[in-house]
């Protein structure tokens, strides 16, 4: 049986900034619209965290039973490494996704925006079919688009709307920035896994673009949020605080741009996630000021 520590590692805690940053940025945009609510913010955060844990366990299960993770370079995979039974990991995924659904239902009931149930259902289905089902879209090069939509647009704009009841150009800017960061994390991950994914028949966007194209995509993605910071400075000059996080990416940009391979790319995932979270926090402070 897997230990508690292995279950925690299997949940991929390094990906949690992808769940926290959209809500934090959404809170900032909601504050700018005078629509902030502690209760709704906390519920949105819990939904986002439950979703990402659920998708991580679902990914572990689906990739594990397909044999995709047998030679993967990176953090522990519960099924692929054999430390946990597939059914146990599947159960963990369903519990996390179910919890996200229940918390989302509470959030919708409080806000009265019942049509958001449809968006919540799409998010849960997107989490499962990323690597689950007979034709998972993550195996056909659509994972990056899904991450941008779910952890960028839906995460940020949903957080804003359940609080303020409206959206703004500032909210859209934050959504694009966080979505680009989050997609950058996945791009760095898939860049690392190009050799093993090709061997396993997993046709990610990285395998389609190739090594050089994927590296260029990553560099563009991590530049976008800082362009957004400059644009948000027309709303409030305090938005330039987001630029403070750029040095966190120096090692990642050097590694990706310099041709690093395999385990040498793992820190890029961590640093991109930290830069995303830092950007979201500082931008929220800026919008509050």
Automatic annotation (TrEMBL):
**GO molecular function terms here?**
1,4-dihydroxy-2-naphthoate polyprenyltransferase activity
Q: Which compartments does it reside in?
A: Cell membrane; Membrane
Q: Where is the signal peptide?
A: none
Q: Indicate whether Transmembrane appears among the record's keywords.
A: yes
Functional pathway: Quinol/quinone metabolism; menaquinone biosynthesis; menaquinol from 1,4-dihydroxy-2-naphthoate: step 1/2
Q: What membrane topology was assigned to this protein in its record?
A: Multi-pass membrane protein
An annotated GO cellular component of this protein is: plasma membrane
Which residue ranges run through the membrane?
A: 38-58, 88-107, 113-130, 137-161, 167-188, 217-244
Keywords, A to Z, come to: Cell membrane, Membrane, Menaquinone biosynthesis, Transferase, Transmembrane, Transmembrane helix
Superkingdom of source: Bacteria
Q: What class of enzyme is it?
A: transferase
- Chief place where the protein resides: membrane
Q: Name one Pfam family in it.
A: UbiA
Question: Might you give the EC number(s) for this enzyme?
Answer: 2.5.1.74
Q: Its Gene Ontology biological processes? A: menaquinone biosynthetic process; vitamin K biosynthetic process
Q: Write down the InterPro entries for this protein, in alphabetical order.
A: MenA, UbiA_prenyltransferase, UbiA_sf, UBIAD1
Q: Which reaction does it catalyse?
A: an all-trans-polyprenyl diphosphate + 1,4-dihydroxy-2-naphthoate + H(+) = a 2-demethylmenaquinol + CO2 + diphosphate
Briefly state the protein's biological role.
Conversion of 1,4-dihydroxy-2-naphthoate (DHNA) to demethylmenaquinone (DMK).
Q: Which family does it belong to?
A: Belongs to the MenA family. Type 1 subfamily.
User: HAMAP family, per this entry?
Assistant: MenA_1
Annotated protein name in UniProt: 1,4-dihydroxy-2-naphthoate octaprenyltransferase
Task: Tell me which species this is from.
Answer: Amycolatopsis orientalis (Nocardia orientalis)
Q: Which gene encodes it?
A: menA
């Amino acid at each position: 049986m897997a230990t508690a520590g292995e279950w925690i590692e299997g949940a991929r805690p390094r990906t949690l900034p992808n769940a926290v940053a959209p809500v934090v940025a959404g809170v900032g945009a909601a504050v700018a619209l005078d629509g902030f609510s502690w209760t709704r913010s906390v519920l949105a955060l819990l939904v986002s965290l439950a979703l990402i844990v659920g998708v991580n366990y679902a990914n572990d299960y689906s990739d594990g039973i397909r044999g995709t993770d047998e030679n993967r370079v990176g953090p522990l995979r519960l099924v692929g490494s054999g430390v946990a039974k597939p059914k146990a990991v599947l159960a963990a995924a369903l519990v996390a996704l179910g919890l996200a659904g229940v918390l989302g239902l509470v959030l919708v009931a409080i806000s009265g925006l019942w049509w958001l149930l449809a968006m919540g259902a799409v998010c849960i289905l997107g989490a499962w079919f990323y690597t689950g089902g007979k034709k998972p879209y993550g195996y056909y090069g659509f994972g990056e688009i899904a991450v941008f939509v779910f952890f960028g647009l839906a995460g940020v704009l949903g957080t804003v709307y359940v609080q303020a009841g409206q959206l703004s150009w500032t909210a859209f800017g934050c959504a694009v920035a966080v979505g680009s960061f989050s997609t950058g994390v996945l791009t760095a991950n898939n860049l690392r896994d190009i050799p093993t994914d090709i061997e396993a028949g997993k046709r990610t966007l990285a395998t389609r673009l190739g090594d050089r194209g994927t590296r260029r995509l990553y560099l563009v993605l991590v530049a976008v949020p800082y362009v957004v910071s400059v644009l948000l400075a027309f709303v409030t000059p305090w938005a330039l605080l987001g630029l403070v996080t750029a040095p966190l990416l120096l090692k990642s940009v050097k590694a990706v741009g310099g041709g690093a391979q395999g385990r040498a790319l793992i820190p890029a995932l961590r640093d991109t996630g930290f830069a995303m979270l830092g950007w979201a926090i500082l931008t929220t402070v800026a919008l509050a000021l």
